[in-house]
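Minutes, project check-in
Item: structure for the 445-residue chain
Input as provided by the requester:
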Amino acid sequence: MGPRSAFRALLLPACVIICSNVLCPVVAFLYNNRYAGDQVFRIHPKNIDEVQTLKNILGHMQVDFWQPNSASLICQNTTVDVHVKRNDTSAVHARLQQEHIDYGVFISDLQEEIEKQTGYRSSRKRRSEFQYDYEVYHSLEEIQSWMFEINRTQPNLVDMFSIGKSYEGRPLYVLQIGKRSRHQKKAVWIDCGVHAREWIGPAFCQWFVKEAIGSYQQDSVMRRLLNQLSFYIMPVFNVDGYHFSWTTDRFWRKTRSKNHKFHCRGVDANRNWKVKWCAQGASSHPCDDTYCGPFPESEPEVKAVAKFLRKHKKRIKAYISIHAYAQMLLYPYSYKYATIPNFDCVESAARSAVTALYSAYGLKYRYGPASTTLYVSSGSSIDWAYKNGIPYTFAFELRDTGYFGFLLPESLISPTCGETTRAVKAIASGVLKKCKPARNKFPYI
């Protein structure tokens, strides 16, 4: 699949006809121009009074929280990134100025930024239809076609299977990467695309598979990992939401399940796990982005992954979930302020990972327990995996820290995925050897 077909999926299905080797003229804007004039504010509440005022201001409007995920998580001396619709931008400007709350606008026209996100592909050399481009974002259909092709062409290292179906009936595909072995090898699970709008996640999962297979012969570290471990890679966890974010709402986060009492759809797939379910950091209201669902594992996607992990938990030694954005590497606990029993080992693995990541482009990642490094959230996958016996569980928050937010340009796919691959290799390498507890903090993180 080339850049042409990836670009095609960004358009509303009825708006474009694809010609042979050429993208025909488009008769409608991306997403029907729905984000024109919308702005993303970056707000800095400095004290408790400003926090409360900000909650009151934003609580009376329909806004889309980027960081943190909801108004309830706003606290002093932290950054709040919020997407405000064009009809409300003037009112937000006026109120923030009136209350003397420090803020700025880091995306002044969201529609323009969405259109810029895929601008990189036009400057890249056109590739043949048979050469998959890992430096552009791909639709769900393209990713699934790529999975079938990888499975077909790499039978010695790849096995593709489905672990179930989504709410809307889409298959939940997983790739098993590694040298075939008679004995049961230790395993690492990696999922991407839990939150639909975080497109860099699925891009990373594809990149990691490409690197694993492509460097197997030349890279002794990768060869050792694939010989001694199995990697279970799920490029798109939230298949329904991801598809919806390409066709209808670029900033959709949740699944697409229906609620019988409300018109709002979807559940936060990272608040739906059976570990301190629907407590702090999750919402019980179906219209909220952090909605925990009607009960734990209510979402077929979560239930399918949980079932698979439970079945193979004796072999799976590391669980890694890829998210965006914040440039962080997080580990349990998310739901409480407490130290995990094997803290030294996990902390050491995290430090090795961010050191490896830093070695690529000098990018600094913060790392630590999710509750203290990011915020408290209940029902998360890393807490569930850890509670179910997987000793190393991590959530990456990839680039960036807010300049692009969820609209990370395609030109940054390669460096982002390259550095993250180094970090994941470091974690996987740690699975193969005995833990060496951390002694000193990483000096520049």
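Outcome recorded: The first helix runs from residue 3 to 9.
No further action items on this chain.
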